[in-house]
Amino acid sequence: MIAPLSEAIDKLVPDGTSLLAVGGMHMHNNPMELVRELVRRPRHIVRLLTSPSGCMAADLLIGAGIVDEVATSYIGFEHLGLAPCYRRRAESNELRVLELCEGAIGHGLYAGASGLPFVPLPSGLDLADNGRANQESYKTVINPYTGEPVVVVPAIRPDVALLHAQSADEQGNAIFSRAHFTDRLMAMAARRVILQVERLAEPHEVAGAAAGCVLPGFLVSAVVVAPGGCLPTASHGHYSYDEEGLREYIELSRTEEGFEHYLRIKGLASVEVAV
Amino acid sequence: MTVVQPNDYSAEELMAVVMARCLRPAEVAIMGAVSALPQAACRLAQLTTAPGLWYIAGGSGAVNPHQDPLVASSCDERLLDADAVLPLLEVIMLEGRGDIFDVFFAGGLQIDASGNCNLGPVGDWARPTLRGPGGVGLPFVSRSRRVIIYSTSHTRRTFVEKVDFISGPGFMDNGDRSRQGPSLIVTPLCTMDFDPEKQRARLASVHPWVAIDEIFERTGFDLVPAGPVPATAPPTDGELSVLRRIDSCGLLRRGDA
């Protein structure tokens, strides 16, 4: 269960992964250590799914050029600015964007976790353009109970979810003691889950938190211990986001050359890895 | 004639005060990304004219965060110092219910005369000139009773006749009037309300330091006033002192929100 970083990525994220989900929300709890390892390998990702609000984890994967398409409702840095690599690749049409709304992601993951094939959305959401821009996901069917049209979105079943939790024990039981966003939901919908944690939990800690927010280990494929591993994003319960570090990334990544420079100085240039 | 901006408060502080004034006791409000401004407005309203107001701070799921202090990110851990915290899926569920939220705070890279907001692609959808971050929960504005739109930018690029992509629907061409829809737009220059018949934005008040011509110059649609346009009432001493207790780090004072 407890695995070294390289082994977890090697075994659980195949080249050509069809749907990779990345957890965290805005500049909080991004599983950056796992994402950085994917960039170093590198692994080809056919489709990337963000939480309702993706941030640096998504932007770095997109910048590295290993993502063909992204299904998202937001990728950005809130008050710090727009996502530089997402902008560049989408504006040059190198990246296909599946426009989803927060409802399609939240309810879609719920459906994926529940074995539901698809899920209807509340009326009114069709007034937005998401459904017109993304006809693959949004379909209109007839509600069999009323005869009225209703918009549906598909269940989301990620092949792999990369997530962060505060701690986990050796069985993979994980403590999400602060905001858990859609992370637990992603874990329940995904076929495989790699969990990045700040530290290993003592057995008594998990027992004491059982009624609170524990993700059971049978939903977790591997736990990677990575103290400080969310930086420069925040890790709730441990550290705030490193604003200077985020600004450095945003600033350098405005150009392709700057982004390559960022990868080099952070030790993220792709390497040949003997398997 | 341009009057110098009053030195004793910032444009963002005035915006928060204006938004706070239109909230009512016992209403339930919700907001999304980059929402320090409406969060400050809600907390100010709770402590002044709208005791018993409820508000949810974006993706944190925090209900009535105590704002000690006001923070810039909508998922900051400090927001969890609150009256309750909902898992995000439950916030999404309640956004869909349709009879919970009285007020939805919205924004956009583009905002149009019908109150539509765009946080997605500007220009061609497949090859946008500006790829915006995305609308997150903005489609849910259609499930709330009324919408308050805020923008810290007031230019012709922001305020356009018609948005390129509808992330948050305003008044639609189909004339659905079952909800109040967009009710107010607040910018660093002015406030706008909506003509109930034409369902178009109109100039409602001009901030004290702004010349009215500047607003017309910087608005990309025809902004017809309803009548004589008053100056936006500046913050009272009381409003400003409560607001600065909330915003003890000075995010709004510095324009960092």
Short description:
The complex is a heterodimer of chains A (275) and B (257). Chain A is an alpha/beta fold and 275 residues long. Chain A has helices at residues 5-12, 32-40, 56-63, 84-91, 102-114, 130-133, 183-189, 203-209, 243-252, 256-265; strands spanning 20-22, 45-50, 67-72, 96-99, 118-120, 139-142, 149-154, 160-168, 174-175, 192-200, 214-215, 222-225.
Protein model, in words:
The complex is a heterodimer of chains A (275) and B (257). By secondary structure, chain A is an alpha/beta fold. Chain A has a domain at 5-161 and 180-194 and 254-265: Glutaconate Coenzyme A-transferase (3-Layer(aba) Sandwich), CATH 3.40.1080. Chain A is built from ten helices and twelve strands. Chain A has helices at 5-12, 32-40, 56-63, 84-91, 102-114, 130-133, 183-189, 203-209, 243-252, 256-265, and strands spanning 20-22, 45-50, 67-72, 96-99, 118-120, 139-142, 149-154, 160-168, 174-175, 192-200, 214-215, 222-225. In chain A, α2 packs parallel to α3 and α5 (102-114) packs across α7. The longest helix of chain A is centred in the middle third of the chain and has 13 residues, at 102-114. Chain A starts with a helix and ends in a 10-residue tail after the last helix. In chain B, α1 packs across α2 (36-47). Helices cover 21% and strands 20% of the residues of chain B. In chain B, the strands form three sheets. Chain B has a nine-stranded mixed sheet with strand order 4-3-2-1-5-10-12-13-14, with helices on one face. Chain B has a three-stranded mixed sheet with strand order 7-6-11, with no helix packed on it. Chain B has six helices and 14 strands. Chain B has one domain: Glutaconate Coenzyme A-transferase (3-Layer(aba) Sandwich), CATH 3.40.1080. Chain B has helices at 11-21, 36-47, 88-97, 212-217, 237-246, 251-254; strands spanning 28-31, 54-57, 62-63, 84-85, 103-106, 110-112, 117-118, 121-122, 130-131, 146-150, 159-160, 181-186, 190-195, 200-206. With 257 residues, chain B is α/β, with parallel strands linked by helices. The two termini of chain B are 29 Å apart. At the A-B interface, α4 and α5 of A face α3 and β9 of B.
